[in-house]
Structures are given as C-alpha cells and as structure tokens.
User: Which sequence fits this backbone?
C-alpha cells in the first residue's frame, strides 16, 4: 500500500514550456486535490476532484489544468510555465462514502523550478 | 484573504517542555479543524483534529483546544521530543471536504 505517490519529484522548466505532474493513490479515495506550497503562505488549493471524470477550481487555478480520467489518478498540467509557478506541489486524497471526509492524505511533493 | 492564520512562524522549545502552537480563524462557519505535521522533503501528515461542537480533543502527547468565541485553537505537545521538530499546519473546513490552511509554524525542539 503506497498511499499517495507523485511523479516526478523534481523538475526544472524554462518559461513557456509545458509539463504534467502525475498523482496516483491506491486507497480507493473519491476525492483528490492539488495544492501548491510557497514560503509564508501555507498550502493553497489549485484544483480538486470529487470523483472520476470531475474537476473543479480551487483558490489559485489560473495557469493550471487538471484531469481525472481514472479514479486513482489526478493529473496537473502547466501549459505555459511561468516563474511565478515555481513552487512545491502536493497532491492529496480523501475518502467519503457519504458526507464530508476531512482528513486528507498527502503525497511527498514535487519541487518545480521555472527559470 | 487568508481565513486561517498562524501568526508565529517559529517556536523553539526545550526537550521535555510543553510546545503551544496557536491558530486563529476569521470564518465562524468553519466546523472542523485539523493539525498537520510536515517534515522536510515529505508531504504533510495528519496529526489531530477537532469538531466545532467540542472544545478539547486529546491523543497521547497531543491536545487541541478550541475556543469558538475567540475563533482560536491551539495545539499542545507535552512533553516535547526531538522528533517533534517539524512544520505544523493548522487547517479548517467549512462543512465540506476542502481545507483552508495556515502558513505553518516551524517547531524546533532543543536537547
């Protein structure tokens, strides 16, 4: 049981390049999330998904797109990377059979640098 | 506009003593609060939580107190151990699955 995994762990991009971050969970969780963590700002929600085939915007969605084609995977895409997207990205998942599920399980993070 | 605030970026405490981490929030509709712990190069891990209908929750060395009238919660760690050195995030939820996080407090436990 690996929990939540993220690929890659590190990446350096040039301004304007694109990339996709992959998140996978093996806990059969319904909900998945992408956050970014910046110094002094905690974790901010980028996009989230409440089930396979669904996505929704979070607090800071601009410049990112997501897809959830399979229940266990949640992809975060940057179409044209900007230096302001230099950050550490965390994926998380949570389970809800019925009603809210507050406890989220996090992956180890992806450190992205855009030059 | 940050709805969850941790005003102390860092805390240094001697091993064996009590660590007290504070968190303030602005939205009185938050109904569930959590604390997460994060080590360098790892993702946050859940530590302890409390529902808004309670004022205290205890789990071993960790106790969370909630003061709804003051919109304030605190995490007490007693006794503090070297392995407690980490960043601690306070988070709050508004009757759903999305969490709002504070900026974090870095705790250093001195031997």
Assistant:
């Amino acid at each position: 049981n690996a929990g939540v995994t993220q690929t890659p762990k590190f990446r350096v991009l040039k301004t304007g390049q694109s990339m996709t971050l992959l998140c996978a969970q093996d806990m059969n969780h319904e909900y998945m999330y992408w956050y970014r963590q910046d110094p002094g700002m905690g974790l901010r929600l980028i996009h989230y998904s409440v089930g396979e085939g669904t996505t929704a915007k979070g607090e800071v969605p601009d410049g990112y797109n997501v897809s959830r084609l399979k229940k266990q995977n949640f992809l975060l895409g940057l179409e044209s990377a900007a230096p302001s997207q230099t950050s550490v990205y965390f994926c998380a998942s949570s389970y809800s059979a019925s009603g809210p599920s507050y406890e989220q399980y996090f992956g180890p993070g992806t450190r992205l640098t855009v030059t | 506009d940050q709805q969850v605030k941790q005003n102390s970026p860092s805390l240094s405490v001697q091993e064996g003593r009590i660590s007290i981490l504070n968190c303030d929030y602005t939205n009185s509709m938050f109904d569930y609060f959590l604390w997460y712990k994060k080590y360098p190069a790892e993702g946050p891990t859940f530590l302890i939580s409390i529902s808004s209908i309670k004022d205290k929750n205890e789990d071993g060395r960790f106790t969370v107190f909630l003061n709804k009238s003051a919109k304030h919660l605190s995490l007490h760690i007693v006794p503090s151990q070297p392995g407690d050195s980490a960043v601690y995030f306070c988070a709050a939820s508004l009757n759903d699955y999305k969490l709002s996080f504070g900026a974090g407090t870095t705790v250093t436990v001195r031997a």
Notes: The interface with chain A takes residues 2, 4, 6, 9, 32, 34, 36, 41-46, 49, 89, 93, 95-99, 101-104 of chain B (CB under 8 Å). The first strand of chain B starts at residue 4 and ends at 5.
